[in-house]
Amino acid sequence: MAKKAINPIKSLKIPQIIIISTNICSLVSKNLATKFAARIFTTPIKHKVPKRELEMDSKSLQKTIHVESINKDIITYHYGNNTRKILLVHGWSGRGTQLFKVADELLHNGYSTISFDAPAHGKSKGTTTIMSEFIASILEIETQFGPFEIAIGHSLGGMSVLNAIKDGLKVNKAIVIGSGDIVQDILDEFICKLKLKNEFSDRLRLFFEDKYQVKMDDFSAYKAAQKIEIPVLVIHDNDDPEVLVKAGIHIHKNLKNGSLFLTDGLGHRKILGNQNVIKKILEFVKIN
Predict the structure, then answer these.
(1) Are the C-beta atoms of residues 6 and 216 closer than 8 Å to each other?
(2) Which residues does 83 contact at the CB level (< 8 Å), separation at least 6?
(3) DSSP-derived secondary structure letter, 49
(4) How far is 217 from 21, CA to CA, in rounded Å?
(5) Distance CA 179, CA 107 (A)
(6) pLDDT digits (tens, 9 = 90+) for 142-189
(7) What separation in angstroms does the CA of 134 have from each of 8, 80, 203, 274?
(8) I need a surface site. Which of 70, 121, 222, 281 has the fewest CB within 10 A?
(9) What is the model's pLDDT at position 11?
(10) Does domain 48-181+220-286 have CATH number 3.40.50.1820?
(11) Where would one find coiled-coil regions in this protein (predicted)?
């Protein structure tokens, strides 16, 4: 069973009403404000599937599977009929079809993809989730659909892929795109966005550590990277405003067999559809 961990939010634009409400809570009770912040931190935004993803959505074989270790159901997408399979993992507030351009190119090059809507994301039920539920979902998907040759993750999905490999996911290679890194840094940024005092970052960390009985830094990407032997390609944009490029560079430095590919001007999401990025992914996939 995957260990419980908090979910790092990296791309949250917090409405002003929530910022005001959280700060009012902090004046009344620091414990109340901490619990309120924790709720926000673990609640993704469900977006409607955009038109550009509808083809993958309609052509995928969709199936609901039960992840027993977290007692939740998720929706999976099996795209293509090739026997060689690659796992795709979306990020926070994403969907199983979000990496559709990558999936299309992999399909044209002899691979099928398996992706999923993480708990509380896309078509999967629920309102809140945590990173360990991403990890548990990956490990259950491997049991039901694996083996996979390669795992590709974006943002929180990148962190989850690295942690899943650390926890036993068997793949030959991995690719992480715009991945977050140090959990405490993500917490600090979140508290800053809420305009709370710095002390609430530690309060939030301690709240999650007490609730789930884990050390949150154990889920930092760089720590997982230190334990991974397989080749890993780290892709990050120098101008990513949501996950700073230092995260990708630090992950790469901690990998035993890592490659780093940096881009410019693509930000956090356009990078997923860039042809140079997709070309680099295909080159990495095909290397023996």
Answers:
(1) yes
(2) 112
(3) P
(4) 28
(5) 24
(6) 999 999 999 999 999 999 999 999 999 999 999 999 999 999 999 999
(7) 11, 23, 24, 25
(8) 222
(9) 45
(10) yes
(11) none
Q: Where in the chain is the domain with CATH 3.40.50.1820?
A: 48-181+220-286
Residue 8, pLDDT > 50, answer: no
Report yes or no: 234 and 261 within 8 Å, Cβ to Cβ: yes
Sign (positive or negative) of CA dihedral 239, 241, 243, 246: positive
Closest CA to 207 of 13, 35, 28: 35
- Return the structure tokens found at 38: 């924790």
- DSSP conformation class of 84: S
Residue 74's DSSP bridge partners are: 65
As a whole number of angstroms, the distance between CA 193 and CA 267 comes to 19
pLDDT digits (tens, 9 = 90+) for 55-101: 999 999 999 999 999 999 999 999 999 999 999 999 999 999 999 99
Q: Percentages helix, strand, coil for the chain, rounded to the nearest 5?
A: 45, 15, 40
Left if phi > 0, otherwise alpha if psi is -120 to 50, otherwise beta: which for 21? alpha
- Write the single-letter amino acid at 174: A
Cβ neighbours of 104 (radius 10 Å): 18
SS3 of 126-160: the string is: CCCCCHHHHHHHHHHHHHHHCCCCEEEEECHHHHH
Type of residue numbered 156: L
Which residues are CB-contacts of 210 (< 8 A; sequence separation ≥ 6)? none
